[in-house]
């Protein structure tokens, strides 16, 4: 498996963030889990079918699993990036569909939406890792793969 320092930096920073977020969510109380579930239901109505505590634990486990896949080099970058992109796009859908988080244009955040709008970097990093291609670089007359 090829090692890319630029991929490692992106994976470690993002993975550590998600691990911390997931571990923090393991201790969500019922009311907090219900609030997070309510926001998620704006984008994916089916999550309302789960008990709030179950949703909270599932979200925590998902974030921990994704964070681990990003931090541990045994998971291929493309696989970890696919998970990160999906997770980031899901968060952006929650941001876009939750009333009060965006201004009238539906894009720019309100003060209440700034925290969710910042999650756009998760989708961007996932896409950057997915779209990065190894290309041949010619050095000293020899072609090497990057």
**Could you give the count of β-strands?**
2
Q: What fraction, in percent, of the residue positions are helical? A: 55-70%
Helices and strands: which structural class?
A: mainly alpha
* Mean pLDDT figure: 91
Order of helices and strands: HHHHHHEE
Task: Give the tally of structural domains.
Answer: 1
Describe it:
This protein is mainly alpha-helical. The protein has one domain (5-132). It contains six helices and two strands, in the order H-H-H-H-H-H-E-E. It has helices at residues 5-25, 30-43, 52-71, 77-97, 114-117, 120-131; strands spanning 136-139, 142-145. A two-stranded antiparallel ribbon has the order 1-2. Helix 2 crosses helix 3. The mean pLDDT is 91.
Provide a compact summary of the structure:
The chain has 146 residues and is mostly helical. The protein has helices spanning 5-25, 30-43, 52-71, 77-97, 114-117, 120-131; strands spanning 136-139, 142-145. It has six helices and two strands; from the N terminus they run ααααααββ.
């Amino acid at each position: 498996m090829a090692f890319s320092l630029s991929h490692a930096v992106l994976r470690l920073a993002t993975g550590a963030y998600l691990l911390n977020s997931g571990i923090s969510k393991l201790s969500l109380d019922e009311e907090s889990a219900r609030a997070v579930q309510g926001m998620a239901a704006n984008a994916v109505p089916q999550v309302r079918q789960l008990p709030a505590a179950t949703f909270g634990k599932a979200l925590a486990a998902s974030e921990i699993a994704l964070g681990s896949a990003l931090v541990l080099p045994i998971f291929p970058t493309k696989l970890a990036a696919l998970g990160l992109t999906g997770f980031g796009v899901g968060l952006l859908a929650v941001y876009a569909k939750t009333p009060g988080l965006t201004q009238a244009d539906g894009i720019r955040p309100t003060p209440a939406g700034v925290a969710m709008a910042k999650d756009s970097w998760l989708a961007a990093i996932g896409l950057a890792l997915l779209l990065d291609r190894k290309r041949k670089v010619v050095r000293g007359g020899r072609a090497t793969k990057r």
